[in-house]
Amino acid sequence: DLVDELFMRNGDPEGRVACWQHFVEEHPDVGSAYTRLGRARFAGRQWAEARAAFERVLSLRPGDMDALVYLAALRAREGDTGLVESLPGQLGPEQVVQVRRWIREWTPLGQELADGPHPERAAALFTVAVQLDPEELWHRIHLGKAQAALGNRSAALDQYRYVLERVPQDPVTSDLVDELFMRNGDPEGRVA
Fold first, then answer.
1. Which pLDDT tens digits describe the chain residue by residue (192 residues)?
2. Cα angle 160-150-161, degrees, rounded to a multiple of 5
3. Could you give the residue ranges of the DSSP H alpha helices within the chain?
4. Distance (Å, rounded) from C-alpha 107 to C-alpha 133?
């Protein structure tokens, strides 16, 4: 973690990838190095390369939860949501606490899916994120956006209301509610 922090603090994501790439070339049987390389590539939106790194981790350490969590998100990106949807049932309570940090790193991928042609994949990703990390309100905001993109206005509003009940002054969520009603030609519904 310290190596990753150093590169991130210095704004050098390419250096982070290069560091771990060099390390795995020197030590091809060290699963934790592939985990670091996968996380660096995931953060850099190098999806195919990240997937290859996490698959290598699993070949070295079958069942590695870190790799499974990231691989689940990457498979959801490709349209296979089965692994991500199965995660909650695979995790014990202590593992749920551990994976929350990794799940928060799904956000850029989920946003890309929600804004692109596959919001259903983003909805699957953020539904699981909400299940595993229910107090992280950004997951609910992103799930609401994915639901809105799918035309599921009621489901989107449910997520936005949840956020606004906890943070009534949240301008981001308030704007999303307004946008949803305006897009559906119901400006009066915003005040109902």
1. 777 777 888 888 898 899 999 999 999 999 999 999 999 999 999 999 999 999 999 999 999 999 999 999 999 999 999 999 999 998 888 888 888 888 888 999 999 999 999 999 999 999 999 999 999 999 999 999 999 999 999 999 999 999 999 999 999 999 999 999 888 776 666 545
2. 10
3. 2-9, 13-26, 31-43, 47-60, 65-77, 82-90, 93-104, 107-115, 119-132, 137-149, 153-166, 171-183
4. 13
Q: Which residue has the tokens 């790194």?
A: 53
53 vs 67, 71, 94, 178, 191, CA distance in Å?
Answer: 9, 9, 25, 42, 49
CB atoms within 10 A of CB 105: 14
Secondary structure letter of residue 61 according to DSSP: S
Range 162-166 contact pairs with CB under 8 angstroms and sequence separation of 24 or more: 162/137, 163/137, 166/137
| Residue 130 structure tokens | 């909400």
Would you mind telling me the total number of residues written for the chain in this entry?
A: 192
